[in-house]
Amino acid sequence: MNIKNIEIVVAPREPHYVGDGFRVHNFIPSGYRLDMERMDPFILLDYNSPFYFPPTDKPRGVSVHPHRGFETVTIAYQGKVAHHDSSGNSGVIGVGDVQWMTAASGILHKEYHEEKFSKEGGYFQMAQLWVNLPAKYKMSAPKYQGITNSQINKYQLEDNKGVVEVIAGNYNNVAGAASTFSPVNMLNARLEEGGKADFSFPATYNTALLVVAGEINVNGTQTVAENHFVLFENEGEDFNIEATKKSIVLILSGEPLNEPIAAQGPFVMNTREEIAQAIRDYNLGKFGYLEE
């Protein structure tokens, strides 16, 4: 067993609002030592820890905005989100569901709390990731994968102490539900108290986890509290987690693209010239139309 040790444990930053519907702690890229190059291919992680939104007749959210050059992945833990984009895709994700949107060559997008959830109010908990696209796919056609929890393959852990949901990649020969453009593993480990799970990823992959709920022990040596983020070293392959209380853990591991990153707002390309072109294309209406 070639142990993969922890490089750093990162506490959540002060929350900020994205639009008026997402109260998030940003880990990637603003967290200490969690810049885009270090976390490649994961270039953003916003985490909306559990937060109560009171009832409202006007759904909260983020109005129409563009994306180009990457994928957005939204994972719902509590609450419901409605989504629309300029390619004609729309849908609602609820507890346990995943929305995987490939912006690629360019898309307009909006996301709001689902209407019924908005009117009733309730606790809202989500994670959103941006996954970078290889240069050769950045200008491919946009696409959308709406993945319900029932479509996510699951691996049952020993003694019925939990399950690992395989959103993308592979876990113990259980294949992920999402298709990806580069090797990406994205897993939800849902553990009862005392539940244990072992993981193994190539040493060169950038590997991390977020304790979404509960508390865990990593490699029998480090206790990690709720809402904290763990970055692993790029040495060793194997690590394990044990829940010291009922827990949910988001595990990320991906092969770095090792390509130049040029990022500005909602555009992530390889050069500044490509960023300038993205802005021109957006201003010329080439991303399509989406009603507010």
From TrEMBL:
* Signal peptide coordinates: none
Which InterPro entries does the UniProt entry name for this protein? Pirin, Pirin_C_dom, Pirin_N_dom, QDO-related, RmlC-like_jellyroll, RmlC_Cupin_sf
Cofactors demanded by this protein: Fe cation
* TM ranges: none
Q: Which UniProt keywords apply?
A: Iron, Metal-binding
Binding residue positions for Fe cation: 65, 67, 109, 111
Domain Pirin C-terminal, first and last residues per copy: 187-288
Comment on bound cofactor: Binds 1 Fe cation per subunit.
Residue ranges of every copy of the Pirin N-terminal domain listed in the record: 33-131
Cite the GO molecular-function annotations of the record. Answer: metal ion binding
Identification of the protein by name: Pirin family protein
